[in-house]
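sorry for the late reply, my laptop died twice this morning and i had to redo everyting from scratch. anyway the thing you sent over, i finally got around to it. pasting the sequence first so we're on the same page, its 203 residues, then the predicted structure underneath. double check i copied it right bc i was rushing
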Amino acid sequence: GKDKYRQPSCGRVDARVASYADAPVARLPVHLEVEGKVLVRGFLDLPPGAEATKTFYARLEDRADPAQAAVVIEGDPLAGDDRRVFWLQPAPRIKVLAVNGDPHPTPFRDELFYFERAVAPRTAADARVQLTIVDADTFDRHRPADYDVVLLANVPAVSPEQARKLEAFVRAGGGLWITMGDKVQRGAMNTALAGVLPRTLRD
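ok and here's the structure:
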C-alpha cells in the first residue's frame, strides 16, 4: 500500500499581549520560537491599557513528543515579562486505511482521486491524517486494528474473515466508513457486515 502525508503539519498559536501604557503601542515586534529556533516573526498594535491577540501559524516538524516553545516580545523596556514559555503538544495523527475498490489508470477516474487530495497537507493544513491506500486484493495484508479508520471505497464485497476483523475493529472503537459506487455488491455487504451497519446499504 501507499503510505502518504507524513509531512510537517501546520500549527496555530494565539498569543494574548496586554499593555499597561497610557499611549498606544504601534508595531510591537513579537515572535514565536520552538526548541530555541525562531519560526515566525510579526508585529502587534496595542491600544492604551488594552489587550490584543497575535496569531501565529507555523510549520511544525512531525513529532510525537511535546516541544518547548515561547512567545517573545522584542525591544520592550521591561524585559522580565517579555518571554512566555509553554509546551506544544502535537495532536495525534489519524491513521486511515483506505481500500480502493475501483482503481483506475486515469487519475481523476480513480475511486480515491478526490479523497486523496481532500486530506493532502497542502489542502487540509490542520488535518493530521496518515493515509495508507491499498486495493481490495491486498486488503488482507493489513490489520484494521492498526488504524483509526478503515474506508471501504466502492469495495465490491468483503470475505467472512475480513468481516470478522472489521466487526471486532468497530466494536473496539474503530471507525468504519463505506462509500457507495457501482462496484458494491449491496446484498453481500449487508450480510457480511450486518453486525455493525447502522442501516442496510441500498441502491
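The chain has a mean pLDDT of 87.
thats about all i looked at so far, will dig more tmrw
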